[in-house]
């Protein structure tokens, strides 16, 4: 009290809530139980107008977690609730506020990756369908249908999902835990069909995977629609392409490579797609 260090847990075979006061013990127990876990909304703003505190992640000494929530939809709204005009506008016109992951969280992710750690990125709707009333005005902030069409984690899996729930669940969690996918603001436009892959002399890889440098590796990006693509290596911008659907780049240095895609939407440049990394070793 106040709440801090929220952890998202998937696939654990037992209730671990009693360990919540000790983040490292909780993370260890998740791994021991066969689950995966992600640090939730690592950086967040308070919203005093709505009596909402910030619920940031503070214990960065922890080890062995699967990844971080790079972009939290509800947390980003809280940055817009610092005065009544801004709050009222964004509550009634929520399509305007989402712009991309918070820069401190992006920087922290790059820092963790640069330190040699495999850190998977996911996004979260953090859907609550909050009901608020101001005098005679009633409003549901983030109704579920809006929330779930806006921001999503997309996964690549090895076969179509079927009717076997335990098998399908295992397949999804394996892909999620390896970071085989991307983060998409589908509110702007559908991100289905995005691909980021690597082709080497004797191997190939996709997001969340490693590939040996071995004389050179070509990175390839494919978009569902033309946009601005930015390639990053170890937290530094390598190259950008404007208004393209495809691009390729040959790398001759090892490193952690990831892609950001930006588009104009409602008068502003906004983050559209963020890939998980490809690790060139």
Characteristics of this structure?
alpha+beta; 6 helices; ten-stranded mixed β-sheet; four-stranded mixed β-sheet; globular; 281 residues
Can you characterise this structure?
The chain is α+β, with helices and mostly antiparallel strands and 281 residues long. Helices cover 21% and strands 37% of the residues. The model has no long low-confidence stretch (mean pLDDT 91).
- What is the approximate shape? globular
Q: What percentage of amino acids are in beta strands? A: 35-45%
Structural class: alpha+beta
Q: Number of helical runs?
A: 6
If you compute it from the alpha carbons, what radius of gyration comes out, rounded to the nearest whole angstrom? 19 Å
Mean pLDDT over the full residue set: 91
* Uncertain regions spanning at least 5 consecutive residues: none
Number of strands: 16
Secondary-structure element sequence?
A: EHEEHHHEEEHEHEEEEEEEEE
**Overall helicity:** 10-25%
* Largest sheet: number of strands, sense, barrel closure: 10 strands, mixed
Terminal CA distance: 43 Å
List the helices and strands and how they pair.
Elements: E1 7-10, H1 23-32, E2 36-39, E3 67-72, H2 73-78, H3 84-92, H4 103-114, E4 120-124, E5 130-134, E6 137-141, H5 144-150, E7 151-155, H6 165-178, E8 181-185, E9 195-199, E10 204-206, E11 210-211, E12 217-233, E13 236-251, E14 255-265, E15 268-275, E16 278-280
Parallel strand pairs: 2-3, 3-4, 11-16
Antiparallel strand pairs: 1-2, 5-6, 7-8, 8-15, 9-10, 9-12, 12-13, 12-14, 14-15, 14-16
